[in-house]
Amino acid sequence: MVHSKPLFSDIVFRNLRLRDKNVYATVNFTLPTAYFRQSDLNAYDLRGSIAVIPTSPSPLDRIVDYSTWIPRFIDTYPVRSWPFPMGSSGSKNKSVADRAIDSFGVTVPLLQFHNVRKKCETDVEYIDDYGDDELRDNTKHRSPVSHHPYVVTRTQIRMVDETAPFDRRWYLKKHQLLMRRSCNQQAGLFPSVHECDRSYIQVGHVETAMNLKSSESEGENEVAYSPYISLSRRVGPKDLFPIPINRQICASPEEYAQASADDQDSVEISWNLAFSGRTFRKFVYLEEIEKYNGQEIYDMELSDHHLALAHDDVEFGGKLTFAISNLVLDLLYWYTRTTTIGISTLGSFLFAGSKAVEVLVPQLAPGVEGIFGWLQLIFSAGLPLLPVVFLIKRICHIRRLGPSAGSRWARWILYPTPLTYDERASQRIENQMSYWSKGCVGQLHSPYRSKLYISL
After folding, report:
1. Residue 445: which of 1, 122, 21, 50 has the closest Cα?
2. Coil, strand, or helix at residue 168?
3. pLDDT tens, 308-365?
4. Residue 17, phi then psi, degrees to nearest 5
5. Alpha-carbon gap, residue 438 to 431, rounded angstroms
6. Which member of 3, 6, 358, 394 lies 3.0 to 4.6 Å from 81 by CB, making a disulfide possible if both were Cys?
């Protein structure tokens, strides 16, 4: 276990569900600055860890043992201070459930290195290469002017909305294969935790397999998979807080004293957190997009106006990427549906109506003026409503005549098609439910309620 000094470790979110969106919290902590005067710093010298625990009673109460994808001989970062919460007088020994929870926790670096305004002249020569992004992970042999430590003050927590049962035999086979190949252990003698490629495509829910006692008195032990958590590392310049210290080696003691006059022994940090549950398709798309984009390098000496523009580019780019991915996935889903078996007719119409109100009301409220106003309305409201059009087409069982119509224009004539036997059976099952039951089902987004634990 990597040695560390905890600054904060407590419960931040309570009663979360996998389908919750945009839940916010702020973690306030005091950061001593003396450590960051060192010449050799790493992005993980300040880090945040996230762990999630289902609210009891839960299947985790019946855990017997667990296995994780990271080999036990690799040193990992601690996820929570212990006893937990920090400063409590609980048990000094972790239970099996506590160790399993920490095994699928996730850690993110909270330091980035960017340039800072020069405070003094120096005779020390450094190697500076702004083109090498990997050198932004540490300050070894780097100039303290081009590589000053900044604290990341915003992180988005994502969790995959997945509770469906998996095939036990294939799941355990995949887990064993991952345990043998993870963290580049076959290629190196001394693999590091930084060589562990943790992504949903590579690891997913297979990272930790938990062996549970059977819920029946004489049944076979059950296997439960872990929830998958990911942290977004994409931030803008407004999300970066410069640590208020002078790390430059000045030419004279007098010049150094003047450059360090504004140094602070400690600083108050507010770490802003946002939680959202995502389907695995959206999750994979966002994770791969962020991996492709990498870490942005900002010129922090620019004016406040230019830094604000750079920050807005990050904000807009993230929102636009998610909006496009959400639109494409919804469009593909309803366009490729060939049957309505298992799809609620009433629920689909309610969803279509609420989506139409959500999109059209903000656009029509200020009024539409001129041809450009109508073009803007078609673009901003028409595109988000395309999935709704295909939804209604599928729910109403409407099809077009197609090539069999003969005429080129007649091919686009729409006509209703009769329901199949299975579709009629599905509708009968839905009609047997009372409106009270349907309303309750609509409110129960997910049975997985949890607490979210944050450690620094």
Report:
1. 21
2. helix
3. 777 666 665 555 566 666 777 778 888 888 788 888 887 788 878 887 787 777 666 5
4. -125, 155
5. 10
6. 6
